[in-house]
Amino acid sequence: MSFGGFLDNSHGGDGGGSGGGARIVADIPYNIRGGPMSQPLSKSMFNSPGLSLALQTTMEGGGGGGGGVGEIGRMPESYETGGGGGARRSREEEHESRSGSDNMDGGGSGDDPDGDDGKPPRKKRYHRHTPQQIQELEALFKECPHPDEKQRLELSRRLCLETRQVKFWFQNRRTQMKTQLERHENSILRQENDKLRAENMSIREAMRNPMCSNCGGPAMIGDISLEEQHLRIENARLKDELDRVCALAGKFLGRPVSTMAPPMPNSSLELGVGGNHFHQLQGGGSGGVLSSSTSALPLGPPDFGISSASSVVPSSRASNTVMGMDSSLERSMYLELALAAMDELVKLAQTDEPLWIRSLEGGREIMNHDEYSRIVTPCIGLKPNDYVSEASRETGMVIINSLALVETLMDSNKWAEMFPCMIARTSTTDVISTGMGGTRNGALQLMHAELQVLSPLVPVREVNFLRFCKQHAEGVWAVVDVSIDTIRENTPAFMSCRRLPSGCVVQDMPNGYSKVTWVEHAEYDEGIVHELYRPLIRAGMGFGAQRWVAALQRQCECLAILMSSAVPTRDHTAITASGRKSMLKLAQRMTDNFCAGVCASTVYKWNKLRANNVDEDVRVMTRQSVDDPGEPPGIVLSAATSVWLPVSPQRLFDFLRDEQLRSEWDILSNGGPMQEMAHIAKGQDHGNCVSLLRASAMNANQSSMLILQETCIDSAGSLVVYAPVDIPAMHVVMNGGDSAYVALLPSGFAIVPDGPGNRVGSETENGGVGGGSGGGAGGSLLTVAFQILVNSLPTAKLTVESVETVNNLILCTVQKIKAALQSDN
DNA sequence: TTGCTAATCCCTA
DNA sequence: TAGGGATTAGCAA
Questions:
Q1: pLDDT in tens, A634-688
Q2: Which one-letter DSSP state was computed for residue A157?
Q3: What's the CA A168/C1' B12 distance, rounded, in angstroms?
Q4: Most CB contacts within 10 A, which of A9, A10, A48, A783?
Q5: Which residues lie in Gly residues bias regions (predicted)?
């Protein structure tokens, strides 16, 4: 019997080979290569302590031979060590050694140790393969874990095992290998996970009580310490790591592994700093619809999908770890800034006295800066020394619902359309979050805007800011803006203005209107503003809340009227609905172009001119008009100036928009009154309209010309914009044709009160005239701007004469207006 | 009680 | 039908 033969061989050795090692049991010496020296040890040998000791002694005595396999324990790592005999041998051999006698006892095949009826018994007698067998099996396994049938047959013959046994052995060995590999990786992952969790907890703790590394005081958001920045970077990295590890661990464990052992409040990690900071701010907020407590609002980043914002901004996080960290850090900073800004906005919108004090002149609300600095911690750092503050708040009812207003504000195109006189240019530069559940709640985006006051004496305000939208309750929304220049590295060094938390809180009213509370708060370099406009700007009447709300009310009223069926009309020509729409669109373009010509925003590339004999307060700019069907081609010259006039804004507006009085200042009128051909009302105030004028005293040259005029007025200011247009082209427009091909160059006037206490809509017809003295209450600041085609060849050179002509035209027009109004008095 | 090993059962490609 | 996963039985620590 072959098995017997094997037994005979196995007893042949004398156990001469030995290896080093300390453990008595595990380190039984044997020749790992098998061969004549190998010796399966018997169970009886093992059970004798004396022998064990003797063996150890022998080993220490430096018995030769052997592979010196001294495996200590059964660490899975052992499998990674290669080597002749395989690392896991010792223990196995230990088993085999002990069962060696069993093997012998069993005799015959392992499948049928006691069976003589030919039927395999349900339970076999326990046995293990001999060390030699295992050794051979291991050796082959190392070379080929998947032997084919032939190899297995070969092996089974050689080892006197059944082919089934060989097959099972390989099967089990593979399974074992896999299990141990998994277990090994799992343990590494678990360790890593524990480590990360510990680090995370310590960071949480650190962020819960942030301390300024310099002064030891509580750290503030606007003043992020280097250490905190490092913590944030580290935190972002750890979060990513943790997610990854948990995903892997979950894969191996076969069940999802939570990144947080206990459920944590959603904002405790990410908003640790902000949270504390906010709670400091919460003192004594007035009641009302809004919850003034930030903690009461769902403000945690996970709620806003910021952590998953990689889907919104796919460029960075997933693809590049380093960039991802930066990006994630930046987003986290933006979010904190946005949350702080939102909190501040709500506070400014809700709190009345002593934060806001109503001024005696004009009833405007003036910010009490002492109170402000007492209750609000600056979230974008301290005001630059040479800057001045401008803060304003205005509340008004607007015929728009909160959702529509929010949508308008969050869409840069709609926003610009809503405030055409105030926004020269705007764009959304980055969307950090689009909001939750298909709404704008939680939407966070980076925006760029150029804000304007229509005067060449007031430079455009260029601002980069975060805009953050939050729903505070059913029908209650807030949209806040805050400059990001302090935390953005690639901001131009020169920014003349920074917006502190500004924006609006809008609450739906039952009658379809919304109650809008607007707060504007900015710090800016006053030095670049002409003295004439400084009081106005500083009072917040140039860029302030009053102007935003007034414009919003006017525009929404216009939209409401246009959408309603009962359009008040008094035009003398039959204009179709589509014609009205086309005409309004054309007028809108005209007014937009007018504004762009006054303020030299980057919409057009104007070149500023300085020429002798040009009044220093008249700014002349030129640009080439090429390939724009909406303009005549050639050299376009824009001249604009602003002057103070001792008449009320209302009176000035009424004078300039009156077609009957036009001959007093407009050379296009040919010295006679003009006639209104068409009139489209844009609001309840008759001053808000688009009209088409025709000179009564037409000469042959101008017989084909009409004047398209748009006027608008609200409590913050008024506009009269006009442009000569071609009669055939206007016919097309009035019949609903495309207005884009009507070439026009607009001119006109922008009127604002000359300072605080002089609201446009709050005065009587004649009450505003300040007795003719300069600088007194009730005067107006008038901006006159002309855009004129000086040469129809775009490549032509601009002549000094044409510049002087335009300069003279503008000065002459101002003189005529002054004279007309004075004689009128 | 736990871990290891040989073997079995059952499912799937 | 071979191979692999799940499971079981026997044993040792």
A1: 888 888 889 998 888 988 999 999 888 888 888 777 667 778 888 888 888 888 8
A2: H
A3: 18
A4: A783
A5: 60-71
